[in-house]
Amino acid sequence: MRAAPVTEQGDLIRWVELPGAEPARVYLHGLGASSAPYFAATAVHPLLAGRRSLLLDLLGFGISDRPTDFGYTLEDHADAVAAALRAAGATGVELVGHSMGGAVAVVLAARHPELVSRLVLADANLDPVVPSRRPGSSGIASFTEEEFLAGGWREVRELVGPHWWSTMRLAGRVALHRTAAQAAEGARGTRPTVRELLLGLTVPRAYLYPAADGAAQLPGPGVLLLPVADCGHNLMLDNPDGFAAAVATALGREAAA
């Protein structure tokens, strides 16, 4: 396990690192997740193995510290990851982000372009969402922070089920709520939107999505679109071989200009 301080208070981001060739490949998990459980099989897959790989947990999640005085916006997360990558001596990385981690990856590439050479998004969040009582960021954001900390998290636990909760329970509750809430529509959402930031980037970009979902809401020109069969939102867990093959394709081709 590796670690680096990423705030003035010395809060640590931690990651599991696999040795290999440069440039490094960095994996960012989704909301309430942790990179090692979600991406370990991908990082060592025969199609992708041999590259220095950082399976990094965002501040507030997994094995990283869980400060309560951190903002947890996408910009805050992106800047914290940037600090960790600089401490690790990782520049020009190939960045793979899932769901909310994909949104952080886009913001990171926009704010710290020297750190990212390629971007691979796995069913990433691109647009603000309307809060509603359902699993995911919209369900968490339907509570105020006070409501969530006072017991709303228990309702979320029942909504997400035992599989997701197995990693979500590791997250700081303040971190979990603030990270989810910033994605909701309103002043806390990223402006410009993540979708707009993505389309404005110049690095090679790819977007992986469940084939059964279709392509209606996917990014526009300049982004390589790669469907993955036989999977839901957790592409890398539902179809490890198909996901690894799509990531390998994404990293082996330049996205259209």
From TrEMBL:
Q: Name one GO molecular function term.
A: hydrolase activity
Source organism's superkingdom? Answer: Bacteria
Under the heading InterPro entries, the entry gives: AB_hydrolase_1 (IPR000073), AB_hydrolase_fold (IPR029058), AB_hydrolase_sf (IPR050266)
Q: Which Gene3D superfamilies match?
A: alpha/beta hydrolase
The keyword Hydrolase belongs to this UniProt entry's keyword annotation? yes
Spell out the Pfam families in the cross-references: Abhydrolase_1
Sorted alphabetically, the keyword list is: Hydrolase
Keyword Aminoacyl-tRNA synthetase applies: no
Q: Which residues form a coiled coil?
A: none
Residue ranges of every copy of the AB hydrolase-1 domain listed in the record = 26-128
Signal peptide residue numbers: none
Q: What is this protein called?
A: Alpha/beta hydrolase
